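Workshop exercise sheet. Pairs work together: one partner reads the sequence aloud, the other fills in the structure field after running the prediction. Swap roles for the next sheet.
Pair: D.N. / O.F.
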Amino acid sequence: MKSSKHYFAIGLFTILGFILLATGCVLFGGADLFANKAHFETYFDSSVQGLDVGSPVKFRGVRLGAVESIAFAGNTYAIPEDADARPLTYIRVVCAIDLDSHPQLAGDAIPRLIARGVRANLALQGISGQLFVNLDFPRNGSLAASKNDLTFPWRPVHPAIPSTPTTLQNFLNIAQDIAANLGAIDFTQVTDSLRTLTDNINAIALKADIPTLTTTFTALGKSLTAQSERLGRLLDRLDTAQLGHNLATISDNLAQTSTDLRAALPTLSAELTQTLRQLDQTLAQASQTLDRLRTDIDTHAIGRDAAETLDALARTAAATEALVQELRLKPSRLIFDAPLED
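Structure field:
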């Protein structure tokens, strides 16, 4: 009888222990098994020291969920042997988003964010050294994939958000590039070139007649100073104000004279043309009279001298007529030495 009671107590204690264990699992973490979640994964090609399972996942400082797993991508995916094996060394970080707190991220919300250019990076939590996964859009607002995004040959189990290097990683990359560039410099050649340049400069300085050059430049400076002083004294003696006034007056007078002459030229030209026309008629009448007189004189044979005189008068009349014709065509010859351009 005592033995039966002993076994009953052991069995009851065992059952109560299992009940307490199940209750503790539900209260202290078992609830996550039944939580409404959305998953995504991202990859990093550098150290994730400071990031642990359970680290926060935030979007612009707002907590969305937590990190569920951290492992090498090669633990989950495989690639052909002839392909680049580097993607297998990517650090694969799987994150869970609490949809009960953020229902707007359910369905295809995460793929739409990826299409809009969202990126994941690692950020520090204060000064503790612990990291968390931060989601945000690039500062330049570009929706296109960055050329720095990691590429991989497999199909992800969860939507894959591209990652960007951390600020520290950017500094490390820059430092590595600087170190590589410095390592490529041939300092021996640079030193030899500088030594050769110094020797050439010394040789030129030794060949140059420094005292003569100094004397020449000194004399040139004194000459320029003297010429500058003479020019200054000359300008001081000039009454620039009066000179400017006189030039302005002369310019105004010339402009007025030109205007008056242009205004009077049509009237003067008309009057001169009329006068020349009358003179032409008078000379024509005189020529006719001379012709009649010469005929009369020849008829009566008054004498050779009278005939020569009449010939001279006829030539004079012809020249005068030609002058009148020219003045009629170009009356400006009475005013100007050369005819005006049409």
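Discussion prompt: The chain has a mean pLDDT of 76. What would you look at next?
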